């Protein structure tokens, strides 16, 4: 594998989350290609400077997000992109600064545009009078912010 990983000793975050983030960013950027086998446990422990427990927790975390799949006698494999959990907030955070982020954000906003109006209508239908008043105030604030954004962009 090109470049390998750097030791994360001394990090303030929990070790397994930091290890998971580093592996995820290599997967998301394509440095660890889909369907490839990642380095074995001992190599990764040495590269990151962490225990096997921390590494195993990181792999479990990435497996839960759909990025990795472990198989006995085969190793840990990068899963195809179609199975990644792009609705996971941590995964979205880890994508920050990766090249194809703009396309993902555009698709994600398209999904939100399709779902949120119906969700808002459902909330309004089932809301109490007080909740409807609060929704109206929030909607007015959103409109004001949108108008200010349009005004700022026109400058």
UniProtKB/TrEMBL annotation:
Keywords: DNA-binding, Transcription, Transcription regulation. This is GntR family transcriptional regulator. SMART domains: HTH_GNTR. InterPro entries: GntR_C, TF_FadR/GntR_C, Tscrpt_reg_HTH_GntR, WH-like_DNA-bd_sf, WH_DNA-bd_sf. Residues 13-81 form the HTH gntR-type domain. The keyword Transcription applies. It comes from Shewanella phaeophyticola. PANTHER family: GNTR FAMILY REGULATORY PROTEIN, TRANSCRIPTIONAL REGULATOR, GNTR FAMILY. PROSITE patterns: HTH_GNTR. The lineage of its organism: Bacteria, Pseudomonadati, Pseudomonadota, Gammaproteobacteria, Alteromonadales. It comes from the Bacteria. Pfam families: FCD (PF07729), GntR (PF00392). The keyword DNA damage does not apply.
């Amino acid at each position: 594998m090109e470049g390998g990983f750097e030791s994360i000793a001394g990090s303030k975050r929990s070790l397994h989350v930091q290890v998971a983030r580093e592996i995820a960013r290599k997967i998301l950027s394509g440095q660890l290609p889909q369907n490839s086998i990642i380095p074995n446990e001992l190599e990764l422990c040495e590269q990151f400077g962490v225990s096997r427990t921390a590494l195993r927790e990181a792999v479990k975390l990435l497996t839960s997000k759909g990025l990795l799949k472990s198989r006995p006698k085969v190793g840990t494999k990068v899963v195809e992109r179609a199975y990644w959990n792009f609705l996971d907030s941590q995964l979205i955070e880890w994508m920050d600064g990766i090249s194809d982020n703009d396309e993902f954000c555009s698709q994600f906003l398209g999904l939100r545009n399709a779902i949120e109006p119906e969700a808002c209508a459902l909330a309004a239908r089932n809301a109490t009078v007080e909740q409807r008043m609060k929704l109206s105030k929030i909607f007015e604030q959103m409109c004001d912010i949108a108008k200010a954004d349009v005004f700022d962009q026109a400058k």
